[in-house]
Amino acid sequence: MCLLIGFIIILYVSYRLYQHFYPTPNISPNGKYILISGCDTGFGHGLAIELDKQGFNVLA
């Protein structure tokens, strides 16, 4: 049990360090076009809707 908890703590600390040293870049949606294929249902559909809300030009 202690081994599992230790492993989870190590994973969490590693993840947080990765986020600190490699932050996600903020991309301005102005003038950006995104082509999404397979967006009738599921993941592609949700992604197309979310990117449109963020201001990207979505070609689906």
Using brief descriptors, characterize the structure shown.
60 residues; mainly alpha; two-stranded parallel ribbon; 2 strands; NAD(P)-bd_dom_sf
Brief summary:
The chain is mostly helical and 60 residues long. The protein contains two helices and two strands.
Characterise the protein shown here.
With 60 residues, this protein is mainly alpha-helical. The chain has one domain (2-59). It has two helices and two strands; from the N terminus they run αβαβ. A two-stranded parallel sheet has the order 1-2. The relative contact order is 0.15. InterPro entries: NAD(P)-bd_dom_sf (IPR036291).
Overall 3D geometry?
elongated
Question: Which percent range describes the beta-strand content?
Answer: 5-15%
- Spatially, the strands of the biggest sheet line up as 1-2
Helix content: 55-70%
Q: Give the terminus-to-terminus CA distance.
A: 48 Å
What is the CA-atom radius of gyration, in angstroms? 18 Å
The number of distinct β-strands equals: 2
- Which structural class is indicated by helix and strand composition? mainly alpha
Order of helices and strands: HEHE
Mean pLDDT, to the nearest integer, reads 93
Low-pLDDT residue spans: none
Q: How would a textbook summarize the main sheet?
A: 2 strands, parallel
Q: What is the domain tally? A: 1
Count of DSSP-assigned helices: 2
